[in-house]
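FW: tagging you since you asked about this chain on Friday. Here's the raw sequence from the shared folder, copied in full. Didn't touch anything.
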Amino acid sequence: MVFTFFSPPPPPPGLRGSLERLQLGYVDIVFASRSDPNSPMEEIVRAMTYVINQGLALYWGTSRWSAMEIMEAYSMARQFNLIPPVCEQAEPHLFQREKVEMQLPELYHKIGVGSVTWSPLAYSLITSKYDGRVPDACRATIKGYQWLKDKMQSEDGKKQQARITDLLPIAHQLGCTVGQLAIAWCLRSEGVSSVLLGVSSAEQLMEHLGALQVLSQLTPQIVMEIDALLGNKSHSKK
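HL: got it, structure written out here
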């Protein structure tokens, strides 16, 4: 069970109220989302340590924090004998790669912080069903998602859709959908502990879980082919 709230952290009674509504005694992990520069890091780390010591969560992590902020939290925990974060919740997908590929691996090797990733299909943009158009029954047509429709119809969106079409032969070769290929591609990344899926039906969930069968087929050669088609592989600035 995952529970996310926004920084600065609410007082423990607020978390307890959420647990009561969820009918849970505790959650496995609680995330501090979007680090607030106006909140001293020591306060955030102490609040999270208190939450864990009270038995309201087993671990705490960060969401959309920079590598520098995560390292600061870890250093603060070491300095004051507090509990450090164990993972970062990031948004990597085929068209957004740099943070997970260039920044988080260094933290993974130095302090053991892994990543729990979300939106592996980029809000359902990474799918062959759109084919350059916006179907009536898709998320982009829902009220409040005009930004997604605009993104799909933008020049960048059209270019991304073209690259997704280019990936179809690889997906067919592996006997999977483009969505399954994209999820497996996220899972292959070093330091990725898990990939959060967003589905609207049991059938869609089972389809996405099929990515586990694809993961073992992602050989270095296949990954190189995907990188060549995407043309956006992250490179060190050193």
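FW: The beta strands are 2-6, 27-33, 57-63, 87-90, 114-117, 192-195.
HL: agreed, and Residues 155-174 form the longest helix (20 residues).
FW: great, closing this out.
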